[in-house]
Design brief:
The chain is an all-alpha fold. Helices cover 78% and strands 0% of the residues.
Length: 249
């Protein structure tokens, strides 16, 4: 047996035994809690949005789509950041658990990116008169989605899971460069997309009657994203355990 393969067997088994026992003990309970809290927050959020939140004086009730669009955008960036950091830790430490975390974060991030672009297009059609425009914010968000798709494409392109994990991790780290571009695109270029009105140095610029339900929906979606992440981690661990998949070169 090649030394590199033997080393990976030892590393994987050691980390798997240590981390799997902890995850097996706590992940299921945490998953149930996060899903329950998410359902409660969504119920509360929808009530506030449709019964208490005012319509915009220009966009009327069309503005209510921001309560899904904006949190999806924030969280897609946040979970891609976690994907990039996990990928970096995986390359540095050689701990397979970081690869499992990265893959799970990638699932959540790509779902949220798709949700962001779809809700943005639905909002843009009546507001801008078009489903899509090569706006700096929209284009940079589309680039992020391309990195996420490329991540999964690479992971399924090689027989060696170790090699595909390493290459996919490298692309994930490169994708981190797009995150500040997404954030500051509306400030660096003239765009149709409105400038940041919540996460600004001067504080939120929208009324608290709209800010309140926005944060409720953010935490609702955040808890749901955590739930999906935990489920993905458990499924990936079970898959590797059943198939006895050791990262090989």
């Amino acid at each position: 047996m090649r030394p590199s393969i033997r080393r990976w067997r030892v590393v994987f088994k050691l980390h798997f035994m240590i981390n799997y026992q902890f995850l097996k003990k706590y992940l299921t309970k945490i998953s149930i809690i996060t899903f329950t809290l998410s359902c409660i927050c969504f119920t509360w959020g929808f009530y506030v949005i449709f019964y208490d939140s005012p319509d915009d004086y220009l966009q009327m009730n069309l503005v209510k789509i921001l309560y899904l669009h904006v949190p999806s955008a924030w969280l897609s960036i946040f979970f891609y950041f976690l994907l990039g950091i996990s990928s970096l830790l995986f390359l540095v430490s050689k701990n397979p658990m970081y690869d499992i975390f990265a893959k799970s974060f990638a699932y959540v991030s790509i779902y949220l990116s798709i949700c962001t672009l779809i809700t943005g297009s639905i909002w843009g059609k009546p507001a801008w008169g078009t489903w899509w425009i090569w706006d700096a914010r929209l284009t940079s968000m589309l680039v992020l989605l391309c990195f996420e798709m490329l991540y999964f494409l690479v992971r399924n392109s090689f027989q060696s899971e170790l090699r595909s994990a390493k290459i996919a991790a490298t692309f994930a780290i490169l994708g981190l460069l797009d995150l500040p571009i997404i954030k500051f695109s509306v400030d660096l270029w003239a765009t149709l997309h409105q400038k940041s009105s919540v996460l600004t140095f001067d504080g939120p610029k929208i009324h608290e009657s709209m800010l309140y339900p926005l944060f409720i929906m953010f935490f609702s979606l955040f808890l749901l994203a955590i739930f999906i992440t935990l489920i993905s981690i458990q499924l990936e661990i079970v898959r590797r355990k059943i198939n006895n998949e050791i990262l090989k070169e």
